[in-house]
Amino acid sequence: MITCGTLAGAIIPELVKVFTSTESRHVREIVTASREGGPSLNILSGLIAGDFSAYWMGLAIVSLMGIASWMSGQFPGGLMIAPAVFAFGLVAFGFLGMGPVTIAVDSYGPVTDNAQSVYELSLIEQVPGIKQELKKDYNIDVNFERAKEMLEANDGAGNTFKATAKPVLIGTAVVGATTMIFSIIMALTNGLAKDVEKLSLLHAPFVLGLITGGAMIYWFTGASTQAVTTGAYRAVEFIKANIKLDGVVAASVSDSKKVVEICTKYAQKGMLNIFIAVFFATLAFAFVEPFFFIGYLFSIAIFGLYQAIFMANAGGAWDNAKKIVEVEMKQKGTPLHDATVVGDTVGDPFKDTSSVALNPVIKFTTLFGLLAVELAVQLTASQGSTMTHVLAAVFFLVSLTFVYRSFYSMRIGADAKH
Fold first, then answer.
1. Using an 8 Å Cβ cutoff, are 412 and 230 in contact?
2. Considering the chain, what is the average pLDDT of its residues?
3. What is the pLDDT of residue 249?
4. d(CA 289, CA 295)
5. CA 157, 162, 167, 170: dihedral to nearest 10 degrees?
6. Which helix (H) or strand (E) holds 415?
7. What span, in angstroms and rounded, lies between the C-alpha atoms of 155 and 327?
8. For residues 136 and 279, what is the distance between their CA atoms, to the nearest angstrom?
9. pLDDT in tens, 42-74
């Protein structure tokens, strides 16, 4: 069963490559679509890649968890209450066993990305007599064009490595959340001795919780992307108004710091709205009804899994489609390149913001929810359900306020100045 988790950590990255690597037919389809369709078909083809990837990776995870479940059925009867859940816990353990490999792979992408950026920002090619100096001091015959080509190609490999790590990380969160949710179920049902019938589609609060979790996932991806959109708009607005790019090799340090400040401001502002909304939503739904909350947690995990895989792989496909045009086709500055740049711009918040942030959201909601639902049960027992429901309404209103703020206070037109 642990082997199933380890296999998941090995198989999923290979599946990711099918949809995001520079050799992927999905990525090359994005390039082909961009030739005549421009940015519009580029974006649609990237969405298609993300959708297909979610299907195949979902089946892979289900298959391995199914095998583990079947193996748990071979245990002697009466050995444990829910052997399948124990098996899922071992799958999560095996998943996490691939953690060092996943971290190493995930780290490779930023290193290659920054290596290219450092080279470009160094402006070494413009240093007078640099080739002769390097030849004299180090006996190196420098080929800057070859160096740029290799750095860009390596960046494409780094994009693929980054993409392979994201679904593994979100998979560990979801499989781990399954076992954590079961611990909450055990506490609520006194070891499956009572109220087990409420874990059913015939129990209305449970069904309503399943629906609510999906709503939260889609709000979260929208709110996190909105923070990126507004921050990017304000940064570009500042650059156009204050930095004269014509004939200038590099912006001043003070202007560069201001751009970083703008981006950081909107990132922190968006993060604050999202965290408070998620925190109070978890409290509110735990206080509504315990089995409503169980449905909510399951829904958060399942919707979050597929949304994260879709967004991460769509973003990776857009990124490497641009890399193919730049490195393999050498068509920088053409309409085809412009189209792929648009796709890559859309893909950045997909793969680097919303998808990866769903991982801690699922883990936080599940871990904090364990405490919140126990507090709600104790309060109901001591003070009655009226007090619990009043608190649930108050917590929900606080959460709803910050959900509202996550768009209306973050939108581009909300503040005329920054």
1. yes
2. 90
3. 65
4. 10
5. 170
6. none
7. 10
8. 62
9. 999 999 999 999 999 999 999 999 999 899 888
Which uninterrupted H or E stretch holds 166? helix 144-188
d(CA 9, CA 19): 17
Contact 16, 315 (CB under 8 A): no
Residues 76-114 pLDDT 10s:
776 777 788 888 888 888 888 887 888 888 888 888 888
Mean pLDDT in residue range 262-288: 94
Return d(Cα 308, Cα 16) in angstroms, integer: 13
Plot region of 116 (φ>0 → left; ψ -120 to 50 → alpha; else → beta) = alpha
Pair 293, 373: CB distance under 8 Å: yes
3-state secondary structure 174-222: HHHHHHHHHHHHHHHCCCCCCCHHHCCCCCHHHHHHHHHHHHHHHHHHH
Question: pTM here?
Answer: 0.89
- What does residue 242 show for φ and ψ, rounded to 5 degrees? -125, -20
Tokens 């890559």 belong to residue? 344
